[in-house]
C-alpha cells in the first residue's frame, strides 16, 4: 500500500499522478477528445467516384483539420490582402463554413478549416473570386480568376524552380569553363 503523504509535501510528479487518477474515471465525450485521439470517421466506399480522385480525398479528410494557401492577384500590400481575404472569410462564414484566416505574406494567406471535407467546395468558391491568383490544396495548385493567362493551367506544378535551377547551372558552367576567379568586368 502507498504511504499517505501530506498534500503540502507533494511534488510535481505526485500531482501528475493524482491528475491521472482523476481523469481515468472521467467519461470524456468523443467530440471533446483532441483530433489525434478521435477514431477516424468510417468511409462509405459507395460514395467514391473512381473517376474523381478528389472524392477519395474529400472522404478521407472529413472531420480533420486542413489548411489551404490562397494567393491574392496583383501586387497587394499586406493590408489590402488582409481586407480581401477578410471579405472572402466573411462570405464563407455567411455560408456556414468554419474558416480561420492567417496572413503569411504580402499576397498570401492560409485558410484553416476544422472539417477538411468542405475544402473542395471552399476552393471552388475561392478560385471564382476576381482577385484570387491561385489556391494550393493538398499539394495541388488551382489557378483562380485573377491568375495571369500563362498560369491558368489546371493543377499546375510550379516549374519556376526548375527553370531557375537550369539558369543557375548554365551560369555556373560558363563561369566554371572560364576558370577565372572573378567574372570579367563590364565597361559602362
From TrEMBL:
Pfam (any one): Mesd
Keyword check for NADP: no
Organism: Herpetotheres cachinnans (Laughing falcon)
Keywords, sorted A to Z: Chaperone, Endoplasmic reticulum, Signal, Wnt signaling pathway
Molecular functions per Gene Ontology: low-density lipoprotein particle receptor binding
Acidic residues bias locations: 23-32
Gene Ontology cellular component annotations, sorted alphabetically: endoplasmic reticulum
Name the UniProt record assigns to this protein: LRP chaperone MESD
GO biological process: protein folding; Wnt signaling pathway
Basic and acidic residues biased stretches: 146-188
Region ranges (Disordered): 21-47, 143-188
Chief location category: endoplasmic reticulum
Record family assignment: Belongs to the MESD family.
Compartments in which it is found: Endoplasmic reticulum
